[in-house]
Design brief:
It contains 20 helices and 27 strands. It has about 625 residues and is of the alpha/beta class. The structure holds 5-amino-5-deoxy-1-O-phosphono-D-mannitol.
Length: about 625
């Protein structure tokens, strides 16, 4: 969703801001803009890509050593030049960029209109900058105090940065339920929605906490206060553990493809230091600290959205199967609004790649209010969910830039597998011999993923066969039912083909009506439990002339005689099959999207981290 980058220091701000906006493109957006201070404030903004903004500004003057930039993902008002950020105050003294939603903007707008304010855009953001102007002018306050007072009157979520032409030595940033990071350079400061625009300038960052306001000044001063109490806070400086190469495509056409191919390494990274088959142990640091509480939990509730919800479903199968703890999996957006029964005997596991998904963060807060212990499985280090949970584990997948989540999914499933194994052993739910067998096999998974990736040419060929079909059905059973859901989601989001994932046995209860010679049916049919049943499901599809693409175990001779195409994956223990079976589905959707001419990394309407409800 929207991205913010701001700069104050000795260098020309414009090239830094534009580079920062390019780094933020992966978040999803539909317009972009910058404001620069050079004696006066100039604002340039355009509907469309950052490149269109750059083309527009190239003929204009863009000097200035302080500025703010923004990529907008439209919420209030359609994507156009006027609704794009930054937004001016009525007196053209202030300019502001915003990520989030001001929920009471309508009430505020009406009150401001009564005071004589006129609005140019349809955005909630413009209301906020007029509110700051009103307070600043009426009460004659310094910028940071006017911003702080205005924010106490706002309901909603925000990360903002404000610039004032009458106080040109400072930038003011603030956050509530939307991330904002301060980068500390040599005699310069950056503010940004995440660390990606900062990494080439500095590794020293401060993650602003919720309800904090920060002032960074050209003279080097930095002050952080609480918005409600005005109390001064002591900032904690983090060292970023990220290299610039992680933000480059490294020779691949798209980040998504690079991220698919990184999976043998990212899965191994998620296991690193956490598993030792020779000594027969699995250890998750985050679990260690809270083991007593977890061991006595009456149930686990997993809360997540999208792909992370799919990995949560696999987590349910793993934890119930191996550790014998009851698990419920909830869409975070539903959990937070349906008055759920959560008590201090429950453990809530929040799963999120970005660590910023608004609904998942709200579910975390709700679970904490209700007394549950909250455990996070997160990729982005220092993100809001990582900081809001009581304990947790990072998946260590590195930055995921493609909007379609791939390596984060397999990282999450790896973590959930480690968690299930750890709990199974500690709770005595599994024999030592079986535990050792599973551990030894689990260590082989990165190599087996590599073998699946080597099927890419065959998968590309199959993609060519079905690229023009308007629909697709994905079927799986047991551990591979969530993989069917994930395969369908991948296809939908990047190729815009309508796709549904179903438990294979449910097909007879409705979706079978859709099957004809135009319908590709992708079936995950590995040879462990319920194999005969899935063979029957494939026969049922073929009897209705559906096009069957089956993911089978190496050496399978039954299905290859029935299906139109079979993609073989190495044999493994049943609980680990999702880590292998999802790979062909990722590649299939990638190749189909490329063949259909879609922008794989930035699909229409989608945002990488969904920071509004
Ligand atoms: O950052 P999160 O894991 O919390 O994001 C959740 C979903 O928004 C995300 O998985 C989304 O569904 C992806 N586009 C899927 O590829």
């Amino acid at each position: 969703m929207c991205g913010i980058v701001a700069y104050i220091g000795p260098k020309e701000a414009y090239p830094l801001l534009m580079k920062g906006l390019q780094r933020l493109e992966y978040r999803g957006y539909d317009s972009a803009g910058v404001a620069l201070f050079n004696g006066d404030i100039r604002v340039y903004k355009k509907k469309g890509k950052v490149q269109e903004l750059a083309d527009y500004v190239s003929t204009l003057s863009y000097e200035g050593t302080m500025g703010i930039g923004h990529t907008r993902w439209a919420t209030h008002g359609e994507p156009d030049d006027i609704n794009a950020h930054p937004h001016f105050s009525g007196n053209r003294r202030l300019v502001l960029v915003h990520n989030g939603i001001i929920e009471n903007y309508d009430v505020l707008k009406k009150a401001l209109e009564k005071e004589g304010h006129h609005f140019e855009s349809q955005t909630d953001t413009e209301v906020l900058v007029h509110l700051i102007e009103e307070i600043q002018t009426r009460e004659n306050l310094p910028l940071e105090e006017a911003v702080r007072v205005a924010l106490t009157r706002v309901v909603g979520a925000y990360a903002i940065v404000v610039m004032d032409k009458q106080e040109p030595g400072k930038l003011v940033g603030a956050r509530k339920a939307s991330p904002l990071v301060i980068g500390i350079g040599e005699g310069e400061y950056f503010l940004a929605s995440d660390a990606t625009p900062l990494i080439e300038h500095t590794k020293k960052v401060i993650y602003l906490n919720d309800q904090e306001i920060a002032v960074v000044e050209r003279n080097g001063d930095l002050q952080i206060k609480k918005i409600d109490s005005n109390e001064v806070q002591t900032p904690f400086i983090h060292e970023l553990d990220m290299e610039i190469e992680a933000l480059e495509k490294g020779g691949y056409d798209y980040f998504m493809l690079k991220e698919i191919y990184e999976q043998p390494d990212t899965i191994a990274d998620a296991m690193r230091g956490r598993i030792n088959p020779r000594e027969n142990w699995v250890r998750l640091g985050g679990l260690e600290k809270i083991y007593e509480q977890i061991a006595n939990a009456q149930r686990f509730i997993i809360a997540a959205c999208g792909t992370s919800w799919h990995s949560g479903l696999i987590g349910e199968y793993l934890i119930e199967d191996l550790a014998r703890i009851p698990v419920e999996v909830e869409y975070a957006s539903e959990l937070r609004y349906r008055n759920p029964i959560i008590t201090d005997k429950d453990v809530v596991i929040a799963i999120s790649q970005s660590g910023e998904t608004a609904d998942t963060l709200a579910a975390v807060e709700l679970a904490k209010e209700k007394g549950a212990l909250v455990y996070g499985i997160v990729n982005v280090v220092g993100s809001s969910i990582a900081r809001a949970t009581d304990s947790g584990s990072y998946i260590h997948a590195g930055p995921e830039i493609g909007v379609a989540s791939t390596k984060a999914f397999t990282g999450q499933v790896t973590l959930l597998t480690l968690m299930a194994l750890d709990l199974a052993q500690r709770r005595g739910e599994i024999s030592e011999t079986r535990f050792q067998e599973l551990l030894t096999e689990f260590k082989n998974i990165p190599d087996k993923v590599q073998k699946v990736l080597e099927k890419n040419q065959q998968i590309k060929y199959i993609a060519g066969e079905i690229q023009d079909k308007p629909n697709a059905l994905y079927l799986g059973r047991g551990y591979n039912f969530p993989v069917a859901l994930e395969g369908a989601l991948k296809l939908k989001e990047i190729s815009y083909i309508h796709a549904e994932g179903y438990p294979a046995a449910e097909m007879k209860h409705g979706p079978i009506a859709l099957i004809d010679e135009q319908m590709p049916v992708i079936v995950i049919a590995t040879n462990r439990s319920a194999y005969d049943k899935i063979v029957s499901n494939i026969q049922e599809v073929k009897a209705r002339k559906g096009i069957v693409i089956a993911i089978v175990t190496e050496g399978d001779e039954t299905i290859s005689h029935i299906a139109d195409h079979t993609i073989e994956i190495p044999d493994t223990e049943e609980p680990f099959t999702p880590l292998l079976s999802v790979i062909p589905l990722q590649l299939l959707s990638y190749y189909i999207a490329v063949m259909r001419g879609c922008n794989v990394d930035q699909p229409r309407n989608l945002a990488k981290s969904v920071t509004v409800e």
